[in-house]
C-alpha cells in the first residue's frame, strides 16, 4: 500500500482489532500525520457485525473527536473515504505513555517506575481531558497507556475514541464484544459496558497512576492491591487514601467526577511536596570519586542494535544505567555547562524547541557556522556521552537539586542510530534510553570537547 486518499504511506504505526494506523505524509505541505484506517483484524468478526455497522462506528469516532477542541484531546484533521474504506487523519505523535513507561506486548510484565512529579503532571492533564469529555456526555471506556500520547511540549492528549459511548445517542454496541483493555478496565464495565459511566474512566486512570508509581499493575481481586508505598518508598503514606478511592471496586466509593479527582490530586501533591522538602536539610550530594576520562567516551556516531544496546551501555531491563556517573556540571555561562570529569562542554538551554533527527543534525551545523559560545566543534552527543549527564530519578533529585539543564528539556537526540528509520534518544527526566522514529521530535543539547 503506497497511498490512501491523497496521503503517502510511510510505514505502519500500530494495529488494533478494528483499525490500522499508518504514518503518512500530507500532499504539498509534506506534514507527517497519523492515518487511521478501518481494517478489522478478523474477517469473521467483520462478517458477523457487517461492514456498514463497522463503518458507522468508525465515522462516529471521527465525529466525536472532530467536535471537541481541547489541549488534552487529540484533534482530527480530516476524514474521508478511500474506495469506500473510511479513514481519518490525526496529529502525529512520536511519544506515548506506553513507550514512556516501557509497557511491552505482554502487559502484565513490570514497567519502568516514573518519578512522582512527572506522574502527577501527566495524570492531572489526563483528568483535564476527561473533564472535557465527561462534560459533553462522552465516556472514553479505553483509557490506557497507549491511548495517551505525549506532545512535543510535554502535554498528554487522549486518543482512540472507537469504544467511547455518547450520552443520549443510540448505542452501536456489538453483542459479545469486550469494551476496554484487560488490566485497565473497571469491574462494572467488564460486566455491563453499556451502563458504565464516567467513573469507569477514573478507575482506569487510577490503574495507570498506580503503575507509573510502582511499575506494577493492580491486583485482580478486590482489596488485594498492596499500598503503592510498598514498592516506592518515596511516596510515603500520603497516597494510600487517594489511590484506594480511585481504585475502589464499587463506583459509588470512587471520586464522583474527574474534576473532584483532579482537585484531590492537587491537594495530595502539595502535602507531599511540603513534607518531602524536609529531606533536603539532611541530604548531601554524593562525593564525586571517579568517572570515565574524556578519552574513554566514544565521540563518533555508531549504529547500536536494539538487541545489543543494554549490554554495550550497561543498562538494566528498563534501559536505565546500572551505574550512574557522578557528574559535577559547572555553569560556565547562561548557555553552557562544563563537566570537568569528562572535559565536555554542553549546551545548557539546548535548541529551545524540538526537532526531528535530520533537523537536529542541521541545527548542530548551524551552531558551528555561528561559532556559538566561540566554538566551532559542536556535535550531537553519543549515547555514551549522554549517559554521563543522567541523574538517578529519586525524590532527592526532584525536590532538592536544581536542574543542570533547562527545565523544559525532556528528550534529547543522540548521534547514534538503530535502524534507517530510528535513532536513539535519552530521556533526561526519567533517565533512560529509548528508540525513536527519526521523524519524531526531541530537543538538542549539543556537546563540544
Key descriptive features of the protein:
449 residues, alpha+beta, Phosphorylase Kinase, domain 1, Transferase(Phosphotransferase), domain 1, Mannose-Binding Protein A, Chain A, 3 domains, six-stranded antiparallel β-sheet, four-stranded antiparallel β-sheet, 29% helix
Q: What fraction strand?
A: 15-25%
Give average pLDDT, whole number.
Answer: 88
CATH class of the largest domain: Mainly Alpha
The count of domains is 3
Alpha-carbon distance between the two ends: 46 Å
**CATH architecture of the largest domain, please?**
Orthogonal Bundle
Low-confidence stretches: 288-295
- Give me the side-by-side strand order of the main sheet: 1-2-3-4-6-5
DSSP summary: helix tally: 12
CATH superfamily of the largest domain: Transferase(Phosphotransferase) domain 1
H/E element order: EEEEHHEEEHHEEEEHHHHHEEEHHHEEEE
* Content-based structural category: alpha+beta
Q: Report the biggest beta sheet as strand number plus sense, adding barrel if it closes.
A: 6 strands, antiparallel
- Radius of gyration computed on alpha carbons: 23 Å
Large-scale geometry: globular
What is the helix fraction of residues, given as a range? 25-40%
Question: Which fold does the CATH topology of the largest domain refer to?
Answer: Transferase(Phosphotransferase), domain 1
Amino acid at each position: 500500500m503506497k497511498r490512501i486518499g491523497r496521503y503517502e504511506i510511510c510505514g505502519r504505526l500500530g494495529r488494533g482489532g478494528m483499525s490500522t494506523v499508518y504514518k503518512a505524509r500530507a500532499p504539498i505541505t509534506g506534514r507527517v500525520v497519523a492515518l487511521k484506517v478501518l481494517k478489522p483484524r478478523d474477517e469473521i468478526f467483520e462478517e458477523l457485525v457487517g461492514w456498514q455497522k463497522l463503518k458507522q462506528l468508525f465515522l462516529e469516532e471521527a465525529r466525536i473527536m472532530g467536535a471537541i477542541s481541547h489541549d488534552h484531546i487529540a484533534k482530527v484533521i480530516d476524514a474521508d473515504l478511500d474506495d469506500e474504506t473510511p479513514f481519518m487523519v490525526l496529529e502525529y505523535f512520536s511519544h506515548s505513555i506506553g513507550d514512556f513507561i516501557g509497557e511491552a506486548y505482554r502487559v502484565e510484565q513490570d514497567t519502568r517506575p516514573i518519578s512522582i512529579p512527572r506522574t502527577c503532571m501527566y495524570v492531572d492533564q489526563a483528568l483535564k481531558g476527561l473533564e472535557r469529555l465527561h462534560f459533553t456526555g462522552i465516556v472514553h471506556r479505553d483509557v490506557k497507556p497507549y491511548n495517551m500520547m505525549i506532545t512535543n511540549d510535554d502535554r498528554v492528549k487522549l486518543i482512540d475514541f472507537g469504544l467511547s459511548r455518547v450520552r443520549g445517542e443510540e448505542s452501536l454496541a456489538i453483542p459479545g464484544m469486550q469494551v476496554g483493555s484487560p488490566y485497565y478496565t473497571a469491574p462494572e464495565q467488564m460486566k455491563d459496558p453499556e451502563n458504565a459511566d464516567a467513573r469507569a474512566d477514573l478507575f482506569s486512570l487510577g490503574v495507570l497512576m498506580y503503575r507509573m508509581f510502582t511499575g506494577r499493575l493492580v491486583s485482580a481481586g478486590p482489596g488485594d492491591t498492596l499500598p503503592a508505598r510498598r514498592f516506592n518508598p518515596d511516596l510515603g503514606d500520603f497516597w494510600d487514601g487517594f489511590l484506594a478511592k480511585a481504585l475502589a471496586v464499587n463506583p459509588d466509593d470512587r471520586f464522583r467526577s474527574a474534576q473532584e479527582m483532579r482537585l484531590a490530586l492537587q491537594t495530595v501533591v502539595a502535602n507531599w511536596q511540603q513534607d518531602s522538602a524536609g529531606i533536603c536539610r539532611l541530604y548531601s550530594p554524593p562525593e564525586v570519586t571517579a568517572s570515565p576520562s574524556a578519552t574513554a567516551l566514544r565521540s563518533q556516531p555508531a549504529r547500536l542494535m536494539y538487541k545489543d544496546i543494554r549490554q554495550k551501555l550497561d543498562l538494566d531491563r528498563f534501559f536505565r544505567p546500572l551505574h550512574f556517573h557522578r557528574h559535577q556540571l559547572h555553569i560556565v555561562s547562561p548557555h553552557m555547562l562544563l563537566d570537568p570529569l569528562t572535559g565536555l562542554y554542553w549546551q545548557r538551554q539546548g535548541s529551545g524547541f524540538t526537532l526531528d533527527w535530520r533537523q537536529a543534525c542541521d541545527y548542530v551545523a548551524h551552531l558551528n557556522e555561528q561559532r556559538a559560545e566561540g566554538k566551532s566543534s559542536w556535535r550531537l552527543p553519543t549515547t555514551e556521552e549522554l549517559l554521563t549527564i543522567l541523574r538517578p530519578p529519586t525524590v532527592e533529585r526532584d525536590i532538592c537539586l536544581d536542574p543542570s539543564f533547562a527545565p523544559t528539556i525532556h528528550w534529547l537526540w543522540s548521534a547514534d542510530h538503530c535502524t534507517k528509520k530510528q535513532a536513539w534518544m535519552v530521556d533526561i527526566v526519567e533517565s533512560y534510553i529509548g528508540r525513536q522514529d527519526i521523524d519524531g521530535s526531541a530537543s538538542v543539547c549539543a556537546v563540544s570537547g
